[in-house]
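User: Predict (diamondback moth) hypothetical protein's structure from this.
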Amino acid sequence: MENLKLSVHQLQETIDSQAQRLVQNEIELIDVPETPNESIYHVVDILAKKIGVELKDVDIDEAYRTGPRRMRTENADKQPRPLVVRLLRKKKRDEILKAAKTRKNISSSDIVPGTSNKIYINERLTTKNRHLFREARLRARQYRFRFCWIKDGRILVRKEENKPAISIRSIADLDVQIGPSPTPSLPAQVPIPSN
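Assistant:
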């Protein structure tokens, strides 16, 4: 029985790794306002120019909004859906992410007229890794880790400046490498379906 559990765990890790590899050329743009009849490719082009990256039509495989449309309430505007851009080359994705780090103060009013929100440009993660990263950030804050970040789809934490980075691949890794959660937010045994 233990051998079967170990085999299932290893297969699940392989599937998770392959799912993340499928989105390795994608970036996610957060808080870009949605407008009626928007041209997503035009929005991506303007954003690339704002961060100083030359982006040609042949660099983009696909660009789209992800998730269901969000309804506007009486008291608040709806949160815009994330904008996903799949690039043909990982090198171009890395160039965009590097430029976005140096030009952090990109506002939505620079891209489309309307409200002024800070725009975030992130690596795209599978649903499982997104939940795991959220939990890693919570625990890193709780246990006073100074750094928690994503690099090439991997979740990394570091306690202090001169300490080595620790790779996090599961809730069990969080329990061992950072510390247990006082209120478990994700079950350790139940796999989370990926995108």
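The beta strands are 26-30, 60-65, 83-87, 120-123, 147-151, 154-158, 166-168.
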